[in-house]
Amino acid sequence: MSFFKVENELFYVPRCEFVQSSEVFADMFLLPSGPGGHNEGQDREHPIVLEGYKKDDFSCLLKVMYPTGRCLISGMKLDLRLEKEEWISVLKLSTIWNMTKFRNYAIHKLSTDVTLSPVEKIVLARAHKVAPWMEEGVTRLASGDPRSTLEDFATLGWETAARILWIRDNASRSSPTASNALHFKFKKDSIKCGNCSSPSSVINFSHKCAGCRIAVTANTEFTFHGPALLWGTADRLVQLNAIECGKCGGKPFSSFYNTHFCIACAAPVSSSHNVRITPNKEMIEEMFGEDIKGYELAMTVA
Q1: pLDDT at position 302, please?
Q2: Which residue from 88, 94, 196, 229 could staple onto 99, CB 3.0 to 4.6 Å apart?
């Protein structure tokens, strides 16, 4: 057991989980005794002082590190009912102290059990290096999220707001007649299976545009105009037959029948099936790719 002092409060908790979950604390406990032969944390007079941290954040982390018996026994699975701000506290400290297990769990709970707005995802992605949230938040705003306000964009800062609005103005303008009608550009790698969440392109075979007969490559540009269903947090579902060739304006996949299948879930790929598209993926990568890769690299190195 060890004593921790955060702000003006003492916490007395088992040290085992800190040692096993964080190299930061594992190394701290290996330090030699201080003056007088005292080890930090061994008693109330010599606690481990966590300067610059909030006791409320630390308390939230402890709830996840040391759940109660009732949480452990609930339905044969861990049942931690924390509020959104509490999960953010867990994410914050687990990221700082490189507690990968708890960080991943907090990201999972914030992604599935609570609702994060596009702006919240971008803000949290920057603060805690969560690459998927950065891409999801930017994609939603660049695709014309109807709930975004001027205050939301102000929160992101003028440069980020300008980049997002540039993407929206150039490739993803909402139709004035239908809230779910879009106009956007994309490439082959953005055309994914509409039946599963595979990140791979569903166009994984040789194909030529049915109109201009140009071979479809990774750099071939396509467009879409019309209604699109939201799939998950960023992608849209559109009918494969509605996709247009960026060169001739024709329907490059109009001749597709049940002769091709998704390599992940084996669902058929035909002109009448829906496919999943990430709007403006290439421009988002151009504007925010370095940020996203930087977050990924930072957590890999950590």
Answers
A1: 57
A2: 94
Residues 6 or more apart in contact with residue 294 via CB below 8 angstroms: 129
Domain-by-domain residue ranges, the chain? 2-114, 129-172+282-302, 176-279
| Model pLDDT for residues 143-157, shown as the tens digit of each residue | 776 677 888 889 999
Q: Are 79 and 71 in contact (CB under 8 A)?
A: yes
* Model pTM score: 0.72
The two three-digit tokens of residue 116, written as one number:
């994060």
Distances (CA, A) of 7 to 10, 14, 47, 50: 8, 20, 12, 8
Token readout for 36 is: 């007088």
Tokens of 301: 């190195």
Q: What 3-state class would DSSP assign to 3?
A: strand
How far is it, in rounded angstroms, from Cα 108 to Cα 152?
A: 24
Dist CA 130 CA 296 (whole Å): 7
Instruction: Select from 270, 284, 276, 279 the least CA-distant residue to 201.
Output: 276
Q: CATH number of the domain at 2-114, please?
A: 3.30.710.10
Cα–Cα dist 119/280, whole Å: 18
pLDDT 10s digits, 49-97: 899 999 999 999 999 988 766 665 555 566 677 899 999 999 999 999 9
